[in-house]
């Protein structure tokens, strides 16, 4: 009986460590995604400003694709 309890405790410890590691990975990916999203918005704004300065009437970010 104690061997079975020991095995179960080891499994729980392993699963707990795995969950903690996966949680860290998800948190890191969330931070990376936030950074990429902010940078994308900045690039879109910069591109729209350049298009407007070049004499365009509608910034590229606001134009509908030709298939719409």
Write up this protein.
The structure is a single chain. The chain is built from one helix and no strands. With 68 residues, the protein is an all-alpha fold. The chain has a domain at 23-47. The N and C termini lie far apart (68 Å). It has one helix at residues 2-53.
What is the strand and helix layout of this fold?
Blueprint: H1 2-53
Can you count the helices?
1
- Which stretches are low in confidence, meaning pLDDT under 50 for 5 or more residues running? none
Number of strands: 0
Q: Helical percent range?
A: over 70%
Cα shape: rod-shaped
Report the mean per-residue pLDDT as an integer.
Answer: 89
Distance between the termini: 68 Å
Main β-sheet description: none
Put the structure in a nutshell:
By secondary structure, the protein is mostly helical. The chain has one helix at residues 2-53.
Key structural traits:
single chain; 68 residues; mainly alpha; 0% strand; rod-shaped
């Amino acid at each position: 009986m104690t061997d079975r309890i020991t095995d179960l405790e080891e499994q729980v410890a392993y699963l707990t460590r795995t969950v903690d590691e996966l949680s860290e990975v998800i948190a890191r990916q969330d931070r990376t995604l936030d950074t990429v999203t902010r940078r994308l918005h900045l690039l879109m704004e910069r591109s729209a400003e350049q298009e407007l300065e070049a004499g365009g009437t509608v910034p590229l970010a606001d134009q509908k694709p030709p298939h719409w």
